């Protein structure tokens, strides 16, 4: 039986226990000791799940209070000076939370660190802040304590840590130009590597054999200096008393494969779901003392795996490598829900097609037993169940719609463009009559416990349709009146009827299905429940028109219709894997085109189609960029090009880097784009400035991921910086993102300050 293991397990808990514990702690309802107790219970539970499945190791260090990069930054003492961390004291948990959120139950609030997407996923990490001469030390003991926890419970621990080059690549600092590729960051290795070596030696002292060291940047196009640094780094870490499993994922190592295999490490993990073609070249390069960890079960999607197909591919590899072939998920299981056992109400046929984290471990066990040549009766039954489920899915009539497929073919002849922006904006300004520095929000307003209870009672049948509509209308009116009162220029209806910006639309589109407890961590305590796109997508009926028209009827000010864009609906769902993603995205675009046209027909003159996942979907390798960018931008235009030039189309993007995709953003041709810039101090505007972006832009001035209320002067200063880079007549004033997760008192205070900042800007322009 081949060894199998996981690279990491979901940390949030099957019922989001970590989320509730974190939020109770931040609100002062739980002590730190109570929070830490929840963490210990979750770790023990998740280790037990993996051990029962037969995993050779349990990963330790995959658990994090916010995200694993922040966890590591605090462990090595990389705390920015504004958090007043003594270099002689351990970094406390509240310092970690202040770095993530700007505040914690103790300590002085400070500006939170920047947050951005983890490669091409919807998971976020806190960006390490780097500075010349930065020093490092072992400043937290939690990793070592967790290794002891696992050992005391009888488990064989495999600690998981970020590799030094990946950690540096992800970091930013003013002195390094803010770019990932800046070679100046490599100068920090002299201070960083001794601390890495100390950590590994301390791990070895805890009787640990293997350490998983994650270097996902090996799946990127790396500059020569960064490639050259790998040999230096791993020669330094080679004699620390532990065996190193170098883990890569999310794409093909390609030109970095020989580099990775040639390093002084004892094992190499490859993502063979995203890049199956690298298997045979890797086997050819593997040294006789190296293990190959084959990532053959998807850690990113939730469909059952074809174990027969994998077995045929892997059988000759196992014959050659023997026990040096390990089986694993493609990446950490952090990106999928915990367990199908919690899905009591999901359609049985769909349920049979799915595999969550716990089931993926079972799949690895069945595959391992299959490769052994003498599987047990239980393994044979499991493999037969797997075959029947895959066959049923392939033959199911609910997947394909001839009507949708015909419309998709016809869409090639649908216009994908509008009048030139200069002509459109003139018409829009005449119609909307907006002042300089117009103010708006991104869409959602606080989702209070009362609103969530209202939706829950309606869905369970405890509240009638009429009573639900009455209460939702009352909330919409309250939000509209508030916005009028404080003086916002373009209003929103607040989205009280929406549980999530993707799930809400998926529930109203054909081809989607939903779980009850399929939660996945996005960042910190923020969890999402991605829909399942299992078949062809269409829109049976209008989804937002009635609510938007009602909101517009309450005011003379323009109210934005709010939609989630096709790329984001695609990226933030678990997408069918039986056709190219491009085709599914175009189906989504056609469904949204119908909705955009209906909004315009209903008198909505401003329509926002959010695409925060546009950059996230970019392939890691540049050779694949243009194809993706072409169909992604085309899908947005397909959704929006059916309206007249007088209708103003907005889009929103957040927590992404735009420098290298500006032509594609311009090709989307939105009239107004809003972006996140408050955490990054307007850094992102440099891309729009250098590109001479021609359309309107709203650089966010209010960091909605922190409970801190921004000062008027601070926001004015941010907008003045924006005005020094871009034409002032093209600038809007808005928050970084939606306000769903914020509380009303801080939201009211922040938006009042934002409107005051806009007025100050108009007076001083």
What does it look like?
The protein is of the alpha/beta class and 765 residues long. The protein has a domain at 423-764: TIM Barrel. It has an 8-stranded parallel β-sheet with strand order 1-10-9-8-7-6-5-2. Strand 12 (520-523) and strand 13 (526-528) form a beta hairpin. The mean pLDDT is 94.
Judging from the principal axes of the Cα atoms, what is the shape? globular
* Strands ordered across the widest β-sheet: 1-10-9-8-7-6-5-2
Spatial extent as radius of gyration: 26 Å
Query: How far from one another are the termini?
Result: 73 Å
Sheet-strand content, in percent, reads: 5-15%
The whole-number mean of residue pLDDT values reads: 94
CATH architecture of the domain at 423-764: Alpha-Beta Barrel
- Output the CATH topology of the domain at 423-764: TIM Barrel
Multimeric state? single chain
Helix content bin:
40-55%
Largest sheet: 8 strands, parallel
| SS-derived structural category | alpha/beta
User: Which CATH C-level class of the domain at 423-764 is it?
Assistant: Alpha Beta
Number of DSSP E strands: 20
Number of helices: 27
Regions with little confidence, pLDDT below 50 for 5+ residues: none
Binding site for L-methionine: 442-444, 495, 610
Binding site for Zn(2+) 1: 652, 654, 676, 737
InterPro entries: Cbl-indep_Met_Synth_N, Cobalamin-indep_Met_synthase, Met_Synth_C/arc, UROD/MetE-like_sf
Enzyme class: transferase
């Amino acid at each position: 039986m081949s060894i199998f293991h996981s690279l990491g397990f979901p940390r949030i808990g099957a019922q989001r226990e970590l989320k509730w514990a974190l939020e109770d702690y931040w609100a002062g309802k739980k002590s730190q000791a109570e929070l830490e107790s929840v963490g210990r219970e979750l770790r023990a539970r998740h280790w037990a799940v993996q051990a029962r499945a037969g995993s050779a190791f349990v990963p330790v260090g995959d658990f994090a209070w916010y995200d694993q990069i922040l966890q590591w930054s605090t462990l090595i003492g990389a705390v920015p000076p504004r958090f007043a961390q003594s270099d002689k004291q351990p970094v406390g948990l509240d310092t970690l939370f202040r770095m993530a959120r700007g505040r914690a139950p103790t300590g002085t609030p400070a500006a939170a660190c920047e947050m951005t997407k983890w490669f091409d996923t919807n998971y976020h990490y806190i960006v390490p802040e780097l500075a010349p001469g930065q020093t490092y030390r072992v400043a937290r003991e939690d990793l070592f304590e967790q290794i002891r926890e696992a050992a005391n419970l009888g488990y064989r621990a495999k600690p998981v840590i970020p590799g030094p080059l990946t950690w540096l690549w992800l970091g930013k600092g003013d002195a390094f130009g803010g770019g990932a590729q800046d070679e100046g960051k490599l100068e920090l290795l002299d201070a960083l590597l001794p601390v890495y070596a100390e950590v590994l030696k301390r791990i070895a002292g805890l009787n640990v054999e293997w350490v998983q060291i994650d270097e996902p940047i090996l799946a990127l196009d790396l500059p020569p200096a960064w490639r050259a640094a790998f040999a230096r780094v791993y020669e330094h870490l080679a004699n620390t008393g532990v065996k190193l499993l170098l883990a890569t994922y999310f794409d093909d190592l390609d030109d970095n494969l020989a580099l990775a295999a040639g390093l002084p490490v004892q094992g190499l993990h490859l993502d063979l779901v995203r890049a199956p073609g690298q298997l045979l070249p890797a086997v050819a390069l593997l040294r006789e003392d190296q293990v190959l960890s084959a990532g053959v079960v998807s850690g990113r999607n939730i469909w059952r795996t074809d174990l027969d197909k994998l077995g045929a591919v892997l059988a000759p590899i196992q014959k050659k490598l023997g026990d040096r072939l390990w089986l694993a998920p493609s990446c950490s299981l952090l990106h999928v829900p915990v367990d199908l056992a919690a899905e009591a109400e999901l359609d049985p046929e769909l349920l049979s097609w799915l595999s969550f984290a716990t089931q993926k471990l079972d799949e690895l066990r069945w595959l391992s037993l299959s490769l052994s040549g003498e599987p047990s009766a239980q393994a044979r039954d499991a493999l037969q169940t797997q075959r029947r489920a895959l066959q049923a899915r392939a033959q199911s009539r609910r997947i394909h719609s001839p009507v949708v497929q015909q419309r998709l073919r016809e869409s090639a002849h649908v216009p994908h463009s509008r009048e030139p922006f200069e002509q459109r904006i003139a018409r829009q300004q005449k119609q909307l009559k907006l002042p300089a520095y117009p103010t708006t929000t991104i869409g959602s307003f606080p989702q209070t416990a009362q609103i969530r209870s209202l939706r829950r009672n309606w869905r369970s049948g405890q509240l009638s349709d009429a009573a639900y509509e009455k209460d939702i209308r009352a909330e919409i009116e309250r939000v509209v009146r508030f916005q009028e009162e404080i003086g916002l220029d373009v209003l929103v209806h607040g989205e009280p009827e929406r549980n999530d910006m993707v799930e809400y639309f998926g529930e109203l589109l054909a081809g989607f299905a939903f779980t009850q407890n399929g939660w996945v961590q996005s960042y910190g305590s923020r969890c999402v429940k991605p829909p399942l796109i299992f078949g062809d997508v269409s829109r049976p009926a209008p989804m937002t028109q009635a609510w938007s028209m009602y909101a517009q009827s309450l005011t003379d000010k323009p109210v934005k219709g709010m939609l989630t864009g096709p790329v984001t609906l695609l990226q933030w769902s678990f997408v069918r894997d039986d056709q190219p993603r491009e085709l599914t995205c175009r189906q989504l675009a056609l469904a949204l085109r119908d909705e955009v046209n209906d909004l315009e027909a209903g008198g909505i003159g401003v329509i926002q189609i959010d695409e925060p996942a546009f950059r996230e979907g970019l392939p890691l390798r540049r050779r694949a960029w243009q194809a993706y960018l072409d169909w992604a931008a085309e899908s947005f235009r397909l959704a929006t090009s059916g309206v007249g030039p007088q209708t103003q189309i907005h889009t929103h993007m957040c927590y992404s880097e735009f420098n290298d995709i500006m032509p594609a953003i311009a090709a989307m041709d939105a009239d107004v784009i809003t972006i996140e810039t408050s955490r990054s101090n307007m850094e992102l505007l440099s891309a729009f400035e250098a590109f001479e972006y021609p359309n309107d832009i709203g650089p966010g001035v209010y960091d909605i991921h922190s409970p801190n209320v921004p000062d008027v002067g601070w926001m004015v200063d941010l907008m003045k910086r924006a005005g020094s880079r871009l034409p002032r007549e093209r600038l809007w004033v808005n928050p970084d993102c939606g306000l769903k997760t914020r509380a009303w008192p801080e939201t009211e205070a922040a938006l009042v300050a934002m409107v005051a900042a806009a007025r100050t800007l108009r007076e001083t322009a």
